[in-house]
Automatic annotation (TrEMBL):
SMART domains from the UniProt entry: CPDc
Keywords: Hydrolase, Nucleus
MF term (GO), any: RNA polymerase II CTD heptapeptide repeat phosphatase activity
Enzyme class: hydrolase
EC numbers, comma separated: 3.1.3.16
Keyword ATP-binding in annotation: no
Catalytic activity reported: O-phospho-L-threonyl-[protein] + H2O = L-threonyl-[protein] + phosphate; O-phospho-L-seryl-[protein] + H2O = L-seryl-[protein] + phosphate
Gene Ontology CC terms, in alphabetical order: nucleus
Location of the FCP1 homology domain: 72-201
Protein name stated in the entry: RNA polymerase II C-terminal domain phosphatase-like
Major location category of this protein: nucleus
Lineage of producing organism: Eukaryota, Viridiplantae, Streptophyta, Embryophyta, Tracheophyta
Domain of life: Eukaryota
Length: 201
């Protein structure tokens, strides 16, 4: 008896499990058939929903639909922005020279300069707020950084406190390891613009 014939003889609930593509998995459980799925299955999208994994087919379909909807309905492309050396500069306070330490005092007086946990000094690039406001009219924006999630969230509380520009579309090294990939950006590559200071990206 073939696998197809065998699966047709199974009860309907078991057939659903056998035929399921496990497109969306959360915490190792398929959202459709409730089967346990290997943690290595598909691609993790923790930055969107903690514990979420999408099958490779689900990723492809979602990218295609997202791009079509963004282009047709919103008339927007997708913009992937790096943080460090693109939107801002950051330096450990311990690395500041004596001549640069005056910036720590100025951080309370300026809107483009902050200290983060008294350990890091962050300075926005000129016209970042104006850039984000204008770019938001033409793009659905992502942040993609090699910093960790805690760092990215702390910085974005300064740049985009109301999540107007990026929402939860923040990808960090916690999700992608130490190399950037468009696999984690839910948009077709043909509809993505990347702004990053690193040439190989």
């Amino acid at each position: 008896m073939s696998l197809i014939e065998n699966s047709c003889l199974e009860p309907e609930s078991k057939r659903a499990t056998l035929n399921c593509g496990h497109f969306f998995v959360r915490y190792g459980i398929c959202c459709n058939c409730r089967s346990t799925v290997d943690r290595e299955y598909g691609r993790a999208f923790d930055y969107l929903v903690h514990g979420l994994q999408l099958s490779h087919k689900a990723v492809a379909v979602t990218k295609s639909l997202t791009t079509q909807l963004a282009c047709l309905n919103e008339r927007k492309l997708h913009l992937v922005l790096d943080l460090d050396h693109t939107l801002l500069h950051s330096v450990m306070v311990s690395r500041l020279s004596e001549g640069e330490k005056y910036l720590l005092r100025e951080s309370d007086l300026r809107e483009d300069l902050w200290t983060l946990d008294r350990e890091m000094l962050i300075k926005l690039r000129p016209f970042v707020h104006e850039f984000l406001k204008e770019a938001n009219e033409f793009f659905s924006m992502y942040v993609y950084t090699m910093g960790n999630r805690d760092y990215a969230q702390a910085v974005l509380k300064l740049i985009d406190p109301k999540k107007v520009y990026f929402g939860d579309r923040v990808i960090t090294r916690d999700e992608s390891g130490f190399s950037k990939t468009l696999d984690l950006v839910l948009a077709d590559e043909c509809g993505v613009v990347i702004v990053d200071d690193t040439r190989h990206v």
